[in-house]
Amino acid sequence: MLTGPWRGGGRAAILTVLVLLVAVPRSALPSGDPARTGFSEVWSLEAPGPLDGSAVRLSGGDLLVPTRTALRVHDPATGAERWRYAPAGAAVREWAPAGPAVVAETRRPTPSGDVTALTGLSRRTGAVLWHREELGLGAPMSARAGAEETPPVGLARDPVSRALLGLDPATGRTRWTLPLPPSCDRMIAAGSGARTAVIATRCGNGIRVSALDPAGGAERWSTRITSFSALYVGGGTVVVSRPERLTVHDAATGRVITERGDCWDGCVPVHAGGRIVVASDQDGASAVEGIDLTRGSAAWRWAQPNGPRYDRLVPLGAAVYATPYGDDLGRVLDVIQAPTGLLRRTMIPAAGPLFGADRDRLYFVRTVRPAALPARLRVTALRVPDRFTGSSLAAEPATVPVAAPGADLCGPLRAAGFTVLGRARYRRAVPPFTACEFGEARGEPMTAEFWRLATEAEAARVLTELGAESGGMSVPGVGDEARLLDDRGRAVVVRTGRDLLRIRSPYLTARDRLVPVARALAGRLGALRWAVPASWSPPVEYGVTPAGRIRRLPGTRFQVRDAPGSPLSLTAYQLGKDGPAYLGNGDGFTVRRERVKAVSQDGRWAVSDFRDYVDGRDGVVLLDRRGGGVRRIATVRRPWSNTAPVWSPDGRVLLTLWHTDERDYSTARGFVVVDPARGTVEVTLTGDDQPHEPPYRWSADGTGVSGHFGLGDLYTDLGEGYDSYELRTFGTDGAPLSAARGLGRPDGEILDPYSPSGRRLAGWCPDRPRDLCVHDAATGAALVRIETNMRYPIRWYDEHHLLVWRRHGEGHAASVMDLHGRILTDLARDGLAGRSEMKLFYTPLPR
Hints:
The chain is mainly β and about 850 residues long. The chain is about 5% helix and about 45% strand.
């Protein structure tokens, strides 16, 4: 059972903003009609949020649905509520099953601070069996170890002693206590199956995973790892999941049964049919394998090129069920026979992620947002027909079409007068569709997606479901019916007969064009030609496409991937402010004593700074990555300094800030331009006295210099900054050229805030400093607003994506993010805390 957080965001592909088309003929996809698929709805219920359904689970014949104010327990057969626990003056934060009880963690506010407590509830009646103050569950819900069996003890955490406690589930008494080892500082995951409990603790620079006897708490075995994602217990095994690796241990002895090292985009394991079925995403190939626990090797393995990704696998008997990630309709179900690997795909009359299975039923959950009402959870149970069970599953012809030979998939765009940019591209999803980049004569690009369903009634039902998820309003006069898909008007979905068309864009300036574009395209997509392949069952094979070259950076715990098709290459990295730097040398990295501050766009030059004045002058140190030479160039005299170097777009000239104190940018006088080839230094006075951090950068075209200047009041609540900023551009002689107002606080970590075309500028938003904005570089007008939890942007990845530094589990990652704020993939990451000041330098690959 997967218990790590459900990963959101569309990592299915890294593309520019595109128009996406799919047409499904009447005979291609079975309808969600039970008369055709055999799946039928048993019941459906709604409950107040949380905003996602990741905490809704099946456990021991109960369906547990936590809400904001209560823990509700339902009968999985009928959906009827059995009981609910709503503590007065407290909120239920987490829960865990334990023997005959459900242990709920609550938090109650008091004048002296929040008080956490554990309450044991009867699984049968919900009656309170016991209550203990000042205890919490073994680990946060998002990190708790997953178990496929009901544990015999409740695992609790004592926040004072930081020990793990094994509680009697009927009485709440402590059966055993396990103190943290002396070298360990905190617990990050804990859970128990019927015969084995597991705990993961942070110990120094690593993670210690221990297997325990749940009855007495005695340790059976332990192992150390360098990164961590989640733990799974069941079927006599302990599965340790890391960001790049999956290891299966014998639960009794700790013996490694098998290990998979190709899990860069995540390996998802589940026990079914006497095997561990593992799904992974491998750069365009959706790979699934069934591991024989006796031999520790794959009994079968297959990969679908451009196939969908699976975020969660749900076992039921000898079958594994999954709703593929990327199914925008939310109605495709994949069924995999665990002993043989046979795959079958069908449509179902329910929407949302699959989270559980019981007897002959599958359970789905999704968030719905009724208009002007708070978000709610909708849980649906479907009955599984016999022909979709593991014992009777048989191969059948494919149902999802692909482009017919010679079909002009961008034809509808041309017919509607849009400009098609580039050729059609295949995009991974279910159903699959092709992609065409397009634009209008003026304005930003948009995305269009098109489906054809079996009947008009089916299309109408899907439109209703999409509208329910976002709470959008109806749009009159477009197709047979249309809806805006969220309250910011980011997308519009249109139904014309059995065709569905969705138009969306992250660009604020394109929002008022979504509906007119949808109206122009809605009637032109019926002529697309598609063909159905002979079979959906992929051939069994013993070897899959590797997920790019994964390597560990010397001197760190970071893993990096040379992703196929990436426009960037990791050229250098710096450990902390005063740690060593590493410069790429082709196949590896060479350690240097100098502190690397920037790398030229062509990757040849790295720049460091003088650690102190030399003969009364500050300067820069140039490191030639091609020839290996070092060159020191003196610049300004004491008390002046230069800092924050940035390279010109062509990699020929270096720009630094001229100021008196590195920590006081208000004393800046101008900038210094260094030409390494000629060995010249030009010091320029701008006449402006207040370019706050970050200092000067090259202008969009690389011929001038730009700087952010604060306007309005200075604030300090979110870090020092001003109400808004003006971007002023100067010539290299210091003459003012232009100014653009309305920008937010710039970020000093991004050395080149301009997109590759120079048209867009990235920085924090003026009115919401925690959001990232993309502005028109010429006018300062806001184009995109992204609500994101990232730490800072590193650089532009391409014209429509950013490379950002963000929290990843216990550590950090350099991730590709689209302009909708979705994380698509990671280029580098570390599963442990630390090295937050590590600086990565990526440069464009030659085209």
